[in-house]
Structure formats: C-alpha cells, structure tokens
Amino acid sequence: MDVLGTQIEVHVSCEKSGGSLFAFEQRVPVGQGVPPHTHDAEDEVVLVMSGRVSGVIDGEAVSVGPGESRVLRRGVSHGFTNDGPEEARIFTVVSPGENFERMFAHLEGTTKRTTPSLEDAVEVMARYGMVFQSPE
Fold this sequence. Notes:
Layout: E1 2-3, E2 6-12, H1 14-17, E3 22-28, E4 33-39, E5 43-50, E6 53-57, E7 60-64, E8 69-72, E9 78-81, E10 88-95, H2 98-113, H3 118-127, E11 130-132
Antiparallel strand pairs: 1-2, 2-3, 3-10, 4-9, 4-11, 5-8, 5-10, 6-7, 6-9
C-alpha cells in the first residue's frame, strides 16, 4: 500500500494477531520520513533493515542503521528522516495495532482519490491518536 509516498507492506495484520499487534515494512525514499509525533495508545519497535535514518527520540538525536533497532514507548515523541544515499527499509511492530492499521487504510484510500495536503494528512492521523509536534 502507498501511504503518503511511502510503500507499506503488511506482514502481520490485526486480524491475524487478534488486534494485539500490527507488523509492517516501510520503504522510505531518500528525504522522506515522519515528523516528530506522539501516540499515547501504542508502543513501537523499529528495526532498520537497510539504509540509515536520523531523527529525534524523546528530545535526543539518533542515527539508526542496518541491524539496529529502537523501542518507542507510548507517549514518547519520535520522528525520523531518511537522510542517507539510498532507500531505507524499516520493519516496525506496533502494539496494540488496530489504530495504526486503520490509519494506514484511511490514508491509502485518501491517497488513491487525491494527493492530500500535509494539513489533511495530519488531521486524519489525529483521528487515530497521532499528535504531531510543531516545529521549534
């Protein structure tokens, strides 16, 4: 599925996990990523499979490369950008997973109809508990 220019391949749906988790792979083009945000209902584990991403987790600058992982606890601000020379592949497990799976499906449907503005995408994501931080 295409979610705002990032390819998402679902590996474990909420249906298969009974809602306990949602696992997916992201293919993130150079220069793309996710701005700093929080979500209070889900924990995430991310594993960079290839490429390199840089970002901020709870105010701390991080750079994560192949084979490295991070745990992103609910309520902790986090975001990343693929600032490397190649596409990054990131495997992510979200628990519980239902909000993320629904959000991705909603965004994919929106993307198929029209190219949403950043404001529209942020509004959709907020419906599923994702809150973006304002740039400082």
